[in-house]
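Handout, section B. The chain below has 186 residues.
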Amino acid sequence: MTLELNEVLIDGMERTLSMMAESGELTCLTGGTPSQRTLWLLAMQGFEPVRHGFISIDGEPLTPRSSHMFRSLMAYAPARLCALGEVTKYEPPSVQDVFSLHANRDLPISNGILGEEMRRIGTNSGDSRLQLIAVASLLNKPIMMVDNPPAVAGDYLKDWASKGRIVVATSDDEDFLKSADVVVEL
């Protein structure tokens, strides 16, 4: 499976982005600001409109009509959960938003299952970013998008990708970047 961006330009960006994320690879977007990196992940999920170029999965283009199909292939771990009910500016989707998508409704999550996945990551930490990654991995989707994971998650995400999945993460942490197979500078 291949996720491709070809000369993509989205609102808020001055430069286009071209990249390919392949099955079995951990791809990391770095550079720019954290909010710019988040916008690129949202564009890959069809939440941010493409002004120029195209995004595709295995040659199938992302369009407003196909965005639901794209998202059904993806799990998303945002950098943080949003405060519900206090919208002062646009925020990326929360884990609750991801679970509310029809494609994700059948997954039973319990604290025991979540705790087991946290141990696989290599921590019993209560770090909410690690918990979001664990929840996203439990969706068992072929593509995982991870916004600003802690460096400790690098080996876990690389292992996740090595099982034939595409993992696209954003980070400017040098330790995390060492785990990535492909680093894309924005």
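Note. Strands lie at 2-10, 17-22, 26-30, 50-57, 60-61, 74-77, 143-147, 166-170, 182-185. Compare this with the example in section A.
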